[in-house]
Amino acid sequence: MNKTFISGNHTFAEAAIRAGCSCYFGYPITPQNELGEYMAMHLREAGGVFIQSESEIAAINMVIGASSTGARVMTSSSSPGISLKQEGLSFLAGFELPAVVVNVMRGGPGLGNIAPAQGDYFQATRGGGHGDYRMPVLAPGSVQEIADLTYLSFDLADRYKTPVMILGDGMMGQTKEPVVFPEPIQDLPEKEWALKSRGDGPSKYMASLILDPAEMEQHNWKLERKFQQIAKNETRYEAYKMDDAELVIIAYGTTARIAKGAINRIRKEGIKAGLIRPITLWPFPKKILQELTKTIDQFLVFEMSTGQMLEDVQLAIGGMADISFHGRPGGVVPTPAEFARFVYREYQEKRGFKS
Amino acid sequence: MKLKNKWPKYYKKDVVTHYCPGCGHGIVHRIVAELLEEMDLGKRTIGVNPAGCAVLAYNYFDIDMIEAAHGRGTAIATGIKRARPDLFVLSYQGDGDLSAIGTAETIHSANRGENFTVIFINNAVYGMTGGQMAPTSILDQKTTTSPLGREPGVDGYPLHITDIVAEFKGVAYAERVSVSSPKNIRRTKKAIQAAFQTQVDGLGYSIVEVLSACPTNWKMNTLDSCKWIDNVLAEEFPLGVLTDKRGQK
């Protein structure tokens, strides 16, 4: 196994090239610029298409064009740029076109800052664009997992004919770690539905305009059946030190890494904390949380936001257990020690001890 | 009665047009379909249709097509052409689409010299939404959003976007034509043929702006609409070749 010491942003790009991505379109924005820069050199070297577009809006529409011909396509951006791509994401969902969209999140709202944050959870998991649709969202927790999930995201996008978002943050993008890359894909299956020009056969067209409400309703239900299949088949999470856990931390991406550090500290104090780390944010791993409420009555949600995934945890658990929240929005990256103190205090308070 | 001209191969049969009487879209559609057949391009064409009156163009053109969000036609065309440079790619757009909401896409696809063809229908109003002021509306033109006439102090001036892109090194062919008379229709066909050939020869971006009637929103009869194109609109937007680099490459 060949290990490469490489940053998260470069890993998104290298894994995409190995997954058969032949077209990349993007516009510069910090903290994900290294992704596009890597593509400019290496995707072109590999015979693919790299265009630095005039805007994120143009980039996502170039994605639509290339994807409609059957190519594997990627675009990437960071929070404000992802807002600009929402129109295109809605069209991709309506057209049922595959694409992989990377969001390396930064502080917001507005221009915010360029530090790592997790404030785009609502936008990513609630559709973001207009209309009645869902979008699979993958949240890598290490640079190795950036490689693995980027690879997976192209398969999911093709299998379900849907845009897939990979939700990282500035920390994930800038961190360098050893990575074992998957082998490059050699042959991809033919996409029968793609526009190839009609040749001698019948013509076809792709439209998201469906003027007849009854037909549009049918299209919406067809999409919904697909989203339900995705929810059934593709929900992913990691369970960390859960075997003997008496309280459960729920965190994804960078905060999940910090939570692991905190868990290792807090276990030295005799507190059996475990972690459920959602890998798919949509579909959200709600079943495991519901099952855990049978034996565990304390859940702690940890995010670099004011509490967004928190709502999914609340929806999953309902009133079946206590949920508390620790959040650091705005680009502040909390430390394992800080979070360990929070867990310790919550544990003590729940059990009536004064901390 | 025997029709002199046969039905174009790449124009669907048994469809009822949704375009209003006197609208120029139907004429330009027919010209495009005829040329796709005469130049043997239809088989290997992907067309991009816009948001606007021509959103339903795939009901008429019997070629592979994809719909674009408002203004994004040339970004989608860029994605298609870069992924499949062997195909013939066409973006069909109106004035609001191409020169208001899609200005950036128009300017930059032209500046990159993308090797596809843009058919630009300029009727100086937003047609589908009911006749609002367009970037190409002329001064004093009454529209639903310039009810007293377009006034430069508040509404700005008519935008000559084809003249702008014609200056770009990446633009190989640009011409402005009209469909106001049989003579002008023949000229339009020649212009679109030249633009198509520019793409076939791989020379870069080609665009044909067509001054086209919208009697419904202009609130004129069809004959007056054609006269208005000749006497008023073409005064603001003079017809002719704006750039032609076919001999230079």
Which key features would you list for this structure?
heterodimer; A: 355 residues; alpha/beta; Rossmann fold; 2 domains; seven-stranded mixed β-sheet; 42% helix; B: 249 residues; two-stranded antiparallel sheet; 9 strands
Structure description:
The complex is a heterodimer of chains A (355) and B (249). Chain A is an alpha/beta fold and 355 residues long. Chain A has helices spanning 8-18, 33-45, 56-68, 79-84, 86-95, 121-125, 143-160, 170-174, 213-234, 253-268, 286-292, 309-317, 336-350; strands at residues 3-7, 21-26, 49-52, 72-77, 99-105, 137-138, 163-169, 176-180, 205-206, 237-240, 247-250, 273-278, 280-282, 298-303, 322-327. In chain A, β6, α7 and β7 form a beta-alpha-beta unit. Chain B has one domain: Rossmann fold, CATH 3.40.50.970. Helix content of chain B is 36%, strand content 18%. Chain B has helices at 25-38, 73-83, 95-101, 103-111, 152-155, 161-166, 182-200, 215-218, 222-236; strands at 45-49, 64-67, 88-94, 117-122, 125-126, 132-133, 171-178, 205-211, 240-244. In chain B, the strands form 2 sheets. Chain B has a 7-stranded mixed β-sheet, sandwiched between helices. In chain B, α1 (25-38) crosses α7 and α3 packs across α4 (103-111). The longest helix of chain B is centred in the C-terminal third of the chain and has 19 residues, at 182-200. The model of chain B has no long low-confidence stretch (mean pLDDT 97). Chains A and B meet through β2, α3, α5 and β9 of A and β1, β2, α2 and α4 of B.
Number of folding domains of chain A?
2
Q: Give the CATH class of the largest domain in chain A.
A: Alpha Beta
Would you tell me which CATH topology of chain B applies?
Answer: Rossmann fold
Strand percentage of chain B lies at 15-25%
Order of helices and strands of chain B: HEEHEHHEEEHHEHEHHE
User: Unreliable segments of chain A (pLDDT under 50, ≥5 consecutive)?
Assistant: none
Overall geometric form of chain B: globular
CATH fourth-tier homologous superfamily of chain B: Thiamin diphosphate (ThDP)-binding fold, Pyr/PP domains
Number of helices, where a helix is a run of at least 4 consecutive DSSP H or I residues of chain B: 9
Architecture (CATH level 2) name of the largest domain in chain A: 3-Layer(aba) Sandwich
- Which CATH architecture of chain B? 3-Layer(aba) Sandwich
Give me the side-by-side strand order of the main sheet of chain B: 2-1-3-4-8-7-9
Number of helices of chain A: 13
Q: How is the largest sheet of chain A built, in terms of strand order?
A: 3-2-4-5-7-6-13
* Mean pLDDT across residues of chain A: 97
- Residue share in helices of chain A? 40-55%
Number of strands of chain A: 15
The largest sheet of chain A is: 7 strands, mixed
Strand content of chain A: 15-25%
Distance between the termini of chain B: 47 Å
CATH superfamily heading of the largest domain in chain A: Thiamin diphosphate (ThDP)-binding fold, Pyr/PP domains
